[in-house]
Amino acid sequence: MNHIAIVEGDITRADVDAIVNAANPKMLGGGGVDGAIHRAAGPKLLEVCRKVKAVNGVRCPYGEARITTAGELPSQYVIHAVGPIYRQANNPKELLESAYCNSLILAKENGCRSIAFPAISCGAYGYPLEDAAHIALSVCGRLEFSGIQVVFYLFGQKMYELWCHVLQEKL
User: I need a labelling partner for 29 at 20 to 30 A (CA). Which of 19, 20, 125, 160 fits?
Assistant: First the structure.
């Protein structure tokens, strides 16, 4: 797990190869992290998102991820990961694991050596914070992903301290 770091800060300023967006299935922007990333990236991000093929308005189903260029962000890519809406999903744990895993697979396939994650599904989607931290850190800590530097950018001291505590438990 020495390839995992946790910071309290603004993910849109992350100096990494790929920034993960906690996206919604339409991939056209939204609130929270999604809105912040779209605002910082500028109109080019929305333009490339619109080019992702949609099926019944869905560009990225729950638990999956899609990769685009990053517009005006310092990263090369944005990986749009759609985590579960906790109280609506039949299998929230599996969907959250899948969103992180699929993001890391896309990063590897595209030659990324570093990736920045937000706390996927922990805002409006209502995932319990400690459970989400355990899931995220377990997936990112898998040996198959040890070649990618993972940085979690978290919002607020409480969230930062909780994730640091969970990471310490796993060491």
Answer: 160
Residue 18 CA from chain centroid, whole number:
10
Residue 49: band (very low, low, confident or very high) from pLDDT cuts 50, 70, 90? very high
Q: Round to whole Å and give the CA distance between 139 and 51.
A: 29
pTM of the model: 0.96
Residue 34 is a catalytic residue: yes
Nearest Cα neighbor of 21 from 42, 44, 38 is 38
Mean pLDDT score, 107-113: 97
Give all strands of the β-sheet with 4-8 in edge-to-edge order: 4-8, 149-154, 114-117, 18-22, 77-81, 65-69
DSSP 108: H
Q: What is the DSSP string of 136-149?
A: HHHHHTSGGGTTSE
Find how far residue 48's CA is from the centre of its chain: 18
Residue 126 in this model has a pLDDT that exceeds 80: yes
